[in-house]
Amino acid sequence: MEVNESAQNNLTKAVDAFKKSFKLCVTKEMLLLSITTAYTGLELTFFSGVYGTCIGAINKFGAEEKSLIGLSGIFIGIGEILGGSLFGLLSKNNRFGRNPVVLLGILVHFIAFYLIFLNMPGDAPIAPVKGTDSSAYIKSSKEVAILCSFLLGLGDSCFNTQLLSILGFLYSEDSAPAFAIFKFVQSICAAVAFFYSNYLLLHWQLLVMVIFGFFGTLSFFTVEWEAAAFVARGSDYRSI
């Protein structure tokens, strides 16, 4: 009987958590932040899977094309660590809010996307195993490719640190459902990006991320401005 009661209690808690997550999911703030979260899922797939594939498919890089994939991953990690450490420390004494960090993140990503667009041939993501000999708009450069890896990691850290920060601030009493929604939306969009990455040329994939990044940044700004207005009035900010 004790085992049955414990199982029923766990089931009840799970159902309550699901209802709370669903209720939280349709709030204005969470819907707006879901656009930003969707962007992080798309660019997560790009820098973790697609970009390394593009580097390894460029035959003009010579015999080092495959080794550059590992080097690219290292510089993505360096960008993530540097950005996470820097913006994590700044967030404790940040008088300007989270918007400047997110703005920096989208600018860094747009620069990276533009350089990738110029430096990589369009068929790199869908190239066969033997690679591609297609030409990019400029002569493909290993240094530019690695620089873009660093910029992708740095920009991603800007978005993730600030998203986690604002979710923890807005939903301090409902943090578990809020972060569950965050990971759910991010994972779904990452899966969608993995699907279309096998069919779309590079410039179309970059265009999708630019569109989502632009509107995701605007939606984050909107939520941050509303949160700052409530704090300025001395009110507790609660969505539900």
Report what the structure shows:
The protein has 240 residues and is mainly α. The protein contains seven helices and no strands. The C terminus is likely disordered. The longest helix has 31 residues.
- The radius of gyration over CA amounts to 21 Å
**Percentage of residues assigned to helices:** over 70%
- Number of beta-strand segments: 0
Shape: elongated
**Average pLDDT taken over every residue:** 84
Report the β-strand fraction as a percent range.
Answer: under 5%
- Through-space gap between termini: 36 Å
**Main sheet: strands, sense, barrel:** none
* Secondary-structure content class: mainly alpha
Oligomer: single chain
- Counted by DSSP, the helix tally is 7
- H-E string: HHHHHHH
Query: Are there runs of 5+ residues with pLDDT below 50, and where?
Result: 234-240
